[in-house]
CRISPR-associated endoribonuclease Cas2
Amino acid sequence: MLLIVCYDVNTETRAGRRRLRRVAKACEAVGQRVQKSVFECQIDVAQMEALERKLLHEIDLGTDCLRLYRMADTRGCEVREHGKFKAIDFDAPLIL
């Protein structure tokens, strides 16, 4: 499944800046960054639940925001890209 992870971490404090780095590293471990605080992750349900637990452990629910968009069937999902960045197509053949 395709999981879209979006977050907004309050970075006004040193602790907030550390949270932001930890949240980004957790997302980078399982997906690709498509914008500064947006990741696309091609993962299964167990991996999604593990990532969600890790992110909820990192963020401050009083000052930060975390949104997870689960796209169960990527064939029905349309993504239109504009601009410099081009995402990796997880369903395309891998060419080395």
